[in-house]
Hints:
This protein is of the alpha+beta class. The protein folds into two domains: 3-164, Chloramphenicol Acetyltransferase, CATH 3.30.559; 183-447, Chloramphenicol Acetyltransferase (2-Layer Sandwich), CATH 3.30.559.30. Helices cover 37% and strands 22% of the residues. A hairpin with a 2-residue loop joins β14 and β15 (412-420). The model is unreliable at 167-179, 181-203 and 289-294 (pLDDT under 50).
Amino acid sequence: xxxxxxxxxxxxxxxxxxxxxxxxxxxxxxxxxxxxxxxxxxxxxxxxxxxxxxxxxxxxxxxxxxxxxxxxxxxxxxxxxxxxxxxxxxxxxxxxxxxxxxxxxxxxxxxxxxxxxxxxxxxxxxxxxxxxxxxxxxxxxxxxxxxxxxxxxxxxxxxxxxxxxxxxxxxxxxxxxxxxxxxxxxxxxxxxxxxxxxxxxxxxxxxxxxxxxxxxxxxxxxxxxxxxxxxxxxxxxxxxxxxxxxxxxxxxxxxxxxxxxxxxxxxxxxxxxxxxxxxxxxxxxxxxxxxxxxxxxxxxxxxxxxxxxxxxxxxxxxxxxxxxxxxxxxxxxxxxxxxxxxxxxxxxxxxxxxxxxxxxxxxxxxxxxxxxxxxxxxxxxxxxxxxxxxxxxxxxxxxxxxxxxxxxxxxxxxxxxxxxxxxxxxxxxxxxxxxxxxxxxxxxxxxxx
Length: 449
């Protein structure tokens, strides 16, 4: 893969970015103590990152299609410009210091002339644990694809690649808005079908849009350009315990935990629950099994009202479950949350000029992003050091102050809360509220007949 046009949705994310709203995903992975020199771990990171073809690609503008851009191999690629080592205070709380620094590093946009990603090795006291912060531009990866790319740094995936040999990547047919004469009829039929789907999704989006864009006060803020990361780890056995009693899925339980935690957090900070429940955008992958790993962003989303006005934990869970069931019945490509599907039907020029305007309209549809990013179920390690936690980080939409990402691994749901640093100085209280809400759900489930 030496050259490939950006898919429409990738192009949208590329143009949505501004200095105050960088559009990169992130993950903070924490490992057991490093058995040796940290610089050796940095070199191992660099070696494995350099072996991932996608991480050598950068974005370049093209003349045709008008407004489009292309992934192309960076011929001056130097992996050491992307992989860095930062030493934290040796006498501090390593986990807290790593999260604080990760938030600060997530504030900085990626350099657009280079392949759009960075990795940071974070170390503290000699012989202590270490962490790796990964930043990938959203144009490069959605959540599932980010996992597929980032997993290449782990021992198990890297060793498997060496054993099986590097598979020759399947050729990606060039994307074009100008089909040749041999397939004009087929392309025309395809575009008509796509237009019909886009009109249907567009109508759903318009119906779901809110004229009052003030949103939920606690979740709405003008951007300060700052970021803060707070983490939480929830016991998946307790999540499953609730699910067995109340039904639904583990993800339904986690969404109900988020709803209850937001309620407790708002009340604790002196805010009354809003008259209208805050609305979450819940991404869902449209990636098909066996699809090419290098295809572009492939996802849609559901819109879900989070029942923060309900004071009963099991009632909140029931409302979440019913809401998600309605979303699933409508399907990820047809409901009002399928904004990404709509974006995938637009021509490049529309994204180049329309994306900055569309970015400011996010609060018309939702108040907070809540995403669940699955990880490989196998045990993972780096340089022989076991992975203990991986906290994902989602980008903030313009005009919003909070994004929530979750990843199950090692018997826990690892949660990354990304907030605007100025708007949410009390973000750690929300992390505590997540634990309190899960405990309340477990207690309520145990009492349930």
